[in-house]
What we know:
By secondary structure, the chain is of the alpha/beta class. Helices cover 48% and strands 18% of the residues. It is built from 32 helices and 29 strands. It has an eight-stranded mixed barrel, surrounded by six helices. Helix 7 links the parallel strand 2 (108-112) and strand 3. The protein is elongated and about 125 Å long.
Amino acid sequence: MPLPKFDLSPLGRFARRPLTAILAFLRTHATLLGACALVACVQLAGALTPLDNALSELRAEMVQRDPSGSIVVVEIDSQSVRAAGQWPWPRERFASAIRNLSRSGAALIGFDVDFSERSNTADDSALRAAIEADPGSVVLPTFVQSESGEENAPLASLSRDAVVGSVNVRLDEDGRVRRYLRGFDHGDHYHASIAAVLADEPYGLTSAFLIDYGINSEHIDRLSFEDVYRGAFDPARVRGKVVLVGATALELGDEFVTPAQTSTPGVVVHALAYESLVQGRALLEPSRVLVLGLALLVLVMLWPRRGPLDLQQFFVRQGAVLSASLLAPFALQAAAPVSADLGLVLLAQALCVVMSIHRELARRTAELVQQREAHLSFVALHDPETDLPNRRAMIEELLRHLAANEQGGEGVVVAMAVGIERFPVLRSAIGYANANKAVRSLSLRVRECGDHAQVFHISTSVLGVVMTVSSEEGARFTRGEGLETLDTSVLLDGQQIELVVRAGSSIAAAGATAERLLEQATIALDQARLKGRRHVNYDAEHAADPQVQLALMSDIGRGLARGEFTLVYQAKASTDLRALVGAEALMRWRHPVHGIISPDQFVTAAEETGAIDALTRWSLQQAIADQNVLRAMGVEKTFSVNLSGRSLSSSEFCDFAIAATKKCDANLCFEITETGIISDPIAAMASISAYRAAGIKISIDDYGSGLSSLAYLKQLMADELKLDKSLIRDIKTSSRDRLILKSTIDLAHGLGMSVVAEGVEDEASCALLTAMGCDSIQGYLVSHPVSLAEFASLCGAVEGAAAVPVRA
């Protein structure tokens, strides 16, 4: 594999400019150096330990070998425990087992059984006699308790003629047994591990090694302790061999988790450690510094260079390194007692692969961007139907003109909006394609009339114009003079189409922005259309003139006289959606010129100009009349009417409302807001008391939308609390909102009020409100605002099929 070439020119200048050369080298190879630092930090943090452990377990599973056959495990299994009938056993049983094993020619007998506590004198004497019969042939266990640090050593009377070996097992952080110590220093004395004693390892060693779990523990010869105790075994199986006695019965609890199995008896762990020693398979781990160096070498060799990626060379290199990283540890462990964990090398290679792909994708993306830049620029800045520059292009052009003026350019920047009258009707008559042709024809006329001004298609029927006025012709055009010349006939499909245009313009003042300049031009065009003028130049003072609101107030009065206002009703339903409890009366205005006008517009204007009182009186009378119509149909429902703060504080309106209600015995509820009380709270409270005394219910509307004062809630003697939809919006996802709602509902009930939630649009929200104790709901889940006839039909449908949930 050829070595990569580096740009070492910065180092060549090191002698002349050391600091400059170092900084240049760091800038050139900053990403590679960062990757090296990342690899080093990962190794230091041990983040790849799980990966290394998994690969080690895979090697143990793949690189299998048989045990040496020099050790026999005598199992204290479930059969032996049942035969003895108790635990701990009388030590006479162990004495009998030692005698039987010794007579059979066992070379060495080790125990993984605690003999640190005294038994009865006869049993201790029997065990001591069995050990003394062949001094040095029995290995007794000692272990240090992990919690207290105390050592559980065999009784001195037993260990006098025996060898003592430690049975402590070292656990890794994940609780698995992978490593085994040859010996332990405890205080002022040393104990070799029982596996090291049985394997005749040199005395005094404390080094650790990895147990070779590739040695098949299932093939280790095993005898049941009960058979050994009774002498019911073939002596040839233990003659000249090492015998290790320990518990394998699950009920004795001497179990460990190993890479090979999730439950391995401790005696088997010691046996595998013994096998690792006697077979020369006590696995060693390479130096962490060596592994880090190998990983850094892979980083340097595979790190991508500048220029296109050679895919063939890329796959050859990556494949070779990956194969070596994965297969070399298997071959090495099969040939030598070395467990090489190369997860860090795999990480280094992965970083190289990711960076190579990233750089190649970035390079190809840059090429694609470069190839398509002109096309994308055209698409982004042009209308796809007319191929004229679009609104974004106009903004950019305005920015250029404004910047040029700030740098001392002559003239004044002007933005214009030229609109085609009745364009939707025209488009419906001649079709989309011909309408686009008409727009293009108009754009040509604008260029000619505007002294070659730049023209843009900023909306369906509006062209934008940008110019810097310096000539008299340009100034004349921006003043709207000669705008009639834009009216033109266009021949489309053999038909002469007459185009009539209006325009609005805005002259850039100091500090003007492109967006604001264009917005002002379109506002001026709207004003020209509203006023029926051919051209309007934007005037900030006139745009903010309150006379516009006064004109709207005049229309409100005339609209009431002409019957342009109507009421629609949005139903309120019980939370189980099986009954309608009433409806809220909502005003709608169909203007003869402007069409449907939003209540937000005309109600605000009416409140500011005083017309709200007339509107409220009309809505109250109309609601009473509509309720009488429903009563004639046999339907009795409560109608809610909204009262403004002005009407609420008016004693004259209060007298009018009570008289109208009593005259028809109307079943009404007045919805008021807390903001409506603030202007004159004394008068408002007096009206509320009078309404309630007259049998008119009071509902606190929009609770939670802004000012939601507990003080007012306490003072207001209301019948209903209406929760604003802003409190309902996030009820399904916000536990905080649900807590607020629940506490509010409980508070309202405690104050004697029913609770209705508005803005409910789905069944999940309805179910949550039901669980919280909400009494009724209002929203699109129940019904949209509908006419009186539709509301009557809805009521009839519910009463005719009471078992069917309400739906609009």
